[in-house]
Amino acid sequence: METIRGLNSNGPAIIATALVFPILTTMTFVLRLATKHFTNAPFGADDWLLFAALDIYIIAEALVIRSAFIGREAASSDDPKYLTYLQYVYVYSVFYWIVIALAQASILSLYYRISGVARFKYTSLVLIGVVAAWGIVASIIEIGYPGHPINYYFGGSAGTVFNVTYLTFWLAMSIIEQVVNVTILALPIPLVMKLQLTQRTKFGLATAFLLGGFVITTGIVRIVTLYHPTAAGIDLTQGDIWLNVHLGVAIICASLPIVRILHSRSLLHNP
């Protein structure tokens, strides 16, 4: 019943964030493309990965909006409309891990492409593999954890049930996500500081990378808001709101560093 009440009280916030953040993410991606066009920079793998993340995010947000309208019409947890709402939640919950993995891989691909330092490139490549493995495992388990098997939501489907409890899985995957985010933020800072650049330019580049700190902040808030293992019930609408915000911030933070880098025309080719 917590989610039923949450759909009524948090419905407007869910719909608002699901409308605003796709617009903001699209604007930052367009800014990224415009900057590349005016600086004659090539469209690389990092751009394709972020473009894929943006597309999946927009699809997820369309599902979030639709689910909010359907869920608010449910009178109780036994109402068929509530089950339909849960089916939407099931699908876009899987999209969460995919979008985060693509956004992280995009930044790491950018690191790999613009750096001329072999060790930095190797580290970026290894981290891309870690992110890919994490995203695949998280998505597979999300599809079939015991409290959330696919055949429960979609009758007749052959669901696979994994022997893990969902909250433990969710917390573990979320912590790994934050560790990777911190690593991505810290990775280029020593390299930037060694470049033969003015202090102002160094500060600008470092700030561009540290913008990713916002995604760590929203990620931590999301964990604190949603992880309540002793609670009698869970309000899924809190997860909807923070899914909208956190994924949007992740894509925005992945777009902005390249804009600053290209604008400064000081790419990291120096050892």
Structure notes:
- With 271 residues, this protein is mainly α.
- The protein is built from ten helices and no strands.
- It has helices at residues 2-38, 45-71, 80-114, 118-144, 150-153, 166-186, 189-194, 199-210, 213-226, 236-264.
- It is elongated, with a radius of gyration of 20 Å.
- It starts with a helix and ends in a 7-residue tail after the last helix.
- Residues 156-163 and 265-271 have low confidence and may be disordered.
Write out key terms for the chains shown.
mainly alpha, 271 residues, disordered C terminus
Brief description of this entry?
The protein is mainly alpha-helical. It has ten helices and no strands.
- Taken from the alpha-carbon principal axes, the silhouette is elongated
> Mind telling me the C-alpha Rg?
20 Å
Number of strands: 0
Order of helices and strands: HHHHHHHHHH
Report the helical percentage.
over 70%
The count of helical stretches stands at 10
Taking the alpha carbons of the first and last residues, their distance comes to 58 Å
Mean pLDDT: 81
> Structural class from helices and strands?
mainly alpha
Residue ranges: pLDDT <50 for 5 or more in a row?
156-163, 265-271
Q: Largest beta sheet, briefly?
A: none
Percentage of residues in DSSP E strands? under 5%
